[in-house]
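Example record

The entry below shows one chain as it appears in the dataset: sequence first, then structure tokens.
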Amino acid sequence: MAIEELRKKFIVSDDVLKARIESLIEKALNHCLVAEDGLVHISDKTLPAKDKIKLVLVARVLAAQLDEKFASDVPLDDLVRSTGIEPNQLRARANEVVRERFARSVRRGVYSANPHKIEPFLDSLSNA
């Protein structure tokens, strides 16, 4: 394969990236919404605690891509408000999410989803 063909396949325009974001948001819409204040409203209240945390982290990463007023980094307080999980349990589950490498701890009590984990997670929710 010629170098120019490889370049066209590997280096993509913003339109291609935007199309991927749109697809991810369509998948996320089945499970949550983000309010103007950054609070994530989860549709399925029966999700396990770890999945709720992951969903909030995913929603905020996607919201940050759409509007710069949203931060992709989610503090513990926002996770508590969005999930309804008690702070002590939430810390434990959030640490598990970090150990699984789904997210990273940006600083103490602040988490962000790893972008390459978003689509497989949303697909797993849709298949459940």
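Notes for this example: The chain has one domain: 13-127. The longest strand covers residues 103-107.
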